[in-house]
């Protein structure tokens, strides 16, 4: 149901999950562990899987009772399949979410992305998440990763612009901070967007707080139809249960701050974002344990969407132009 209608029933799959129910068994697998990078700062830990799309495998706090997860940890199968969709969070370059029919018009030409992933009818999340990233620098609490895309005309649906993406992932001041940046390495302008795709633990008591102005309503294929009011806007301001609506929708002109709270566990996680992360996606499907609150620079299908620039987002990077902005997740415990 993509019009995000009310869902008064609690999803059957959304059963309470304490931090003790999600242990990090894959850290005990030497083959998997050898592929990972772990950052530490006090009790905080972030585990990075560079070869799984530069994704985060976990962000947690080490406690005497076990790991207290601030993001939903990866499942073991995610490493074998190299599947970022089953990780804790992953970067989105050079656009976020779907592009209708995997094509759009730009600078007088049709950009055809069809064929880049047979699983999806519409191009999804760009291409950086489908490739390994390189670790360029590393210390105890910070890592710098990069990915450079060189278009290959032999690959159907390949992104036709050369670019370099970077992530600086660090634990500092009791928080996780990720600085995303990109540079257009092509000799022509490139349409662009970026973001991160975090999954959070979802329980019956979880609440999401955010100050948003309006929502992009979507069709059955999760593509935007129109921008306007929705009860979820007020619900988010008051503290929305992920079970209240069937959501996979973009919210524009948010305050660039959102809090995911677990009041029964006396804790919360506040996410803040720099401009131009002026858009936020909430993915809270009915009858499903997933919950995403994603900071992004563009709405779904931004290269085709019709609307005011502040409602659509995205930008055009000129040859050699760079863009950089940071995201921060700060845990709080009562």
UniProtKB/TrEMBL annotation:
Its BP terms in the Gene Ontology are: carbohydrate metabolic process
Q: Name one Pfam family in it.
A: Aldose_epim
Instruction: List, alphabetically, the InterPro entries matched.
Output: Aldose_1/G6P_1-epimerase, Gal_mutarotase_sf_dom, GH-type_carb-bd
A GO molecular function for this record?
Answer: isomerase activity
Domain of life (superkingdom): Bacteria
User: What CDD domains does the record tag this protein with?
Assistant: Aldose_epim_Ec_YphB (cd09021)
Protein name per UniProt: Aldose 1-epimerase
């Amino acid at each position: 149901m993509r019009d995000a209608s009310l869902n008064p029933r609690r999803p059957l799959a959304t059963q309470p999950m304490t931090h003790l129910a999600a242990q990090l068994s894959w850290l005990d697998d030497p083959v998997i562990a050898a592929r990972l990078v772990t950052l530490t700062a006090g009790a905080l830990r972030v585990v990075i899987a560079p070869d799984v799309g530069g994704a985060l495998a976990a962000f947690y706090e080490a406690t005497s009772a076990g790991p207290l997860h601030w993001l939903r940890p990866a499942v073991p199968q995610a490493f074998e399949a190299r599947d970022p969709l089953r990780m804790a969070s992953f970067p989105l370059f050079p656009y976020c979410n779907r592009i209708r029919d995997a094509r759009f018009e730009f600078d007088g030409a049709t950009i055809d992305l069809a064929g880049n992933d047979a699983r999806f009818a519409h191009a999804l999340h760009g291409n950086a998440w489908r490739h390994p990233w390189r670790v360029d620098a590393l210390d105890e609490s910070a890592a710098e990763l990069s990915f450079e895309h060189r278009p290959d005309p032999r690959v159907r649906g390949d992104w036709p612009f050369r670019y370099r993406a970077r992530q600086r992932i660090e634990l500092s001041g009791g928080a996780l901070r990720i600085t995303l940046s990109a540079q257009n390495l092509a000799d022509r302008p490139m349409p662009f967007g970026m973001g991160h795709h975090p999954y959070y633990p979802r329980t019956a008591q979880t609440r999401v707080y955010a100050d948003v102005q309006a929502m992009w309503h979507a069709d059955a294929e999760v593509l935007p139809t129109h921008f306007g009011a929705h009860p979820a806007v007020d619900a988010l301001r008051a503290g929305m249960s992920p079970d209240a609506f069937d959501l996979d929708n973009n919210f524009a002109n948010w305050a660039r701050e959102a809090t995911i709270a677990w009041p029964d566990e006396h804790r919360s996680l506040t996410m803040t974002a720099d401009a131009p992360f002026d858009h936020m996606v909430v993915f809270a499907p009915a009858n499903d344990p997933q919950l995403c609150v994603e900071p992004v620079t563009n709405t779904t299908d931004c290269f085709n969407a019709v609307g005011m620039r502040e409602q659509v987002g995205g930008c055009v990077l000129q040859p050699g132009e760079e863009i950089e902005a940071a995201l921060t997740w700060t845990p709080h415990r009562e």
